[in-house]
């Protein structure tokens, strides 16, 4: 302790402050604390041989160029790699003739930038001949130290992922569905159910599950929800979170047919992002043109390719690298639209008509880009491409002008006049040699077109909306499409085929009327009404149909469940009902021959399923009777309790009513007064001659 100047010191104080402390370890002390544990933070700053090496990457498979082309190569490489971070130094080894050796060393400011470069730019396709290989410089030492003797890795315990396919093992093949409703403003509830009979079984109910709506993936494995920060996909028997994708204010999503990729679409003018569903990694992004958001990207059936239409060219991207196929676009002047085959890597596109150049429809095989078939068309106003779900047929609906006849005086006049419109359906037989094309001409206005998903029929609504007709055609191998049935004077606006074919619902969504038709003999099995119904949804098995009312109709919101024959099974009224969605199913694994054998021997299995259905209904009836008996018992008990309370309160009632018992006044006939009321119902006048 320090003393002030002039303060007196005594000998005892001198003795106390003159001794120095002893920091030596006692005899026999063993130090068991390591430097790493004691000075961990300080030792992190210790210099080592690898300082700076972690910031360096090695880029291989660079083009070998001479000195005159080196500045251009250097500029391209720096433009590519500066996106990963700040570049400190770049070194290109050269030979005696001043040519590059095909690799380079790039040093970044920090190790994080180097790691980002390896992650994003490894396998970067520079052009169709060169694909860059990017590795860390430190990885060379790691891989050179691999021991000569290989030892097998220890087996890791199997971790069960969420049971994404649990819904497919239901023994009775009862489908799942979800019902979306808005409980309170801004709070959307989603209810998941199983379509058991006679009443559905609730599997799960989630409050505030999404901000807007939900969407199933094509095979039913996932369900997508929308939120302010982005979208989330859920799966498994309990619908747990599988992955989330940060794309603020995403309005639409699209999932590839094989469920490998997810596309999120922001508002018009914002970017569109392709994500890997399993890893959540961003694979590629595009800037929206602000006009056609919802169907900008289109997928091949096997997820191998994704394509988009930009400025008279089709850009096809290979999903293994997400670079352009063959590093170039397919330029087609005047192209208006295109569509992938649902079963093959074939693109159908149509080109608009120009002066002295007819419009045309072309089938293009991918990846070889071979034209399989071309069809020229004249006097074309518009085209619509309709693939059959099985990929056996392609229909191109062509809107054509009826050209007027010119007078002899007008021979030199170059103006062309048109009298009206007529319509052609060009049918491409995709499974036949040389892909023959047949034409079906219809003079009346076309209101709707629909292919039979499994089969060779297609249906057309034509004529005036107030009195339209529905024509059914059948396309057979080696024959022209033939008209098999025409139903006249049908007020119909939409056609909904069963996913299994044969059955069709002819709907008038303005009136809410429906007709259920069997196209084997074109008999109308049943008709029904659902006032203000705005949507029709078949279940994946083709056994049930749902019609729903939502939106502006506040008083009748809800849905009806119908059998495929048109019998109403259930009516559900639900306040603020928004959406009903069946859960899709993946394609069957049975071969075509096996499916034919099952259909052929269906009567053999009929008795078995009939017994199971009867047992289920009996069990359900028993449960219903027991439920009703329990409710009656509860009501009787409640009524007895209230009657007893009423009798106990009789004395108090009489006190309040001057000791007059008013409980039996109405039952006493002497207290009743009779009143006769006469009124004129009808007046007839008869003239007597």
Structure description:
With 689 residues, the chain is of the alpha+beta class. Among the domains are: 93 residues, Alpha-Beta Plaits (2-Layer Sandwich); 45 residues. Helices cover 16% and strands 37% of the residues. It is built from 9 helices and 42 strands. It has a 5-stranded antiparallel β-sheet with strand order 2-3-1-5-4. Strands 17, 18, 19, 20 and 21 form a 5-stranded antiparallel β-sheet that branches. Strand 11 and strand 12 form a beta hairpin. The chain starts with 10 loop residues before the first helix and ends in a 33-residue tail after the last helix. The N terminus is likely disordered.
Q: What is this entry, summarized?
A:
The chain is α+β, with helices and mostly antiparallel strands.
Q: Got a strand count?
A: 42
Question: What is the helix fraction of residues, given as a range?
Answer: 10-25%
Rg from C-alpha positions? 39 Å
**Please, what is the average pLDDT?**
85
List the helices and strands and how they pair.
Layout: H1 11-18, H2 35-38, H3 40-43, E1 56-60, H4 70-81, E2 87-91, E3 103-108, H5 111-121, E4 124-125, E5 131-136, H6 138-144, E6 176-184, E7 187-194, E8 201-210, E9 214-216, E10 223-226, E11 231-235, E12 240-245, E13 252-255, E14 261-265, E15 271-276, E16 282-287, E17 298-299, E18 305-309, E19 313-318, E20 323-324, E21 330-331, E22 335-340, E23 346-351, E24 359-365, E25 370-377, E26 380-387, E27 393-403, E28 418-429, E29 437-442, E30 446-451, E31 457-464, E32 467-474, E33 482-490, E34 494-497, E35 503-508, E36 513-518, E37 523-529, E38 535-538, E39 544-549, E40 558-563, E41 568-573, E42 577-582, H7 592-600, H8 602-648, H9 650-656
Antiparallel strand pairs: 1-3, 1-5, 2-3, 4-5, 6-7, 6-42, 7-8, 9-10, 10-11, 11-12, 13-14, 14-15, 15-16, 17-18, 18-19, 19-20, 19-21, 22-23, 23-24, 24-25, 26-27, 27-28, 28-29, 30-31, 31-32, 32-33, 34-35, 35-36, 36-37, 38-39, 39-40, 40-41
Domain RRM: 55-139
Main location: cytoplasm
Biased composition (Acidic residues): 10-30
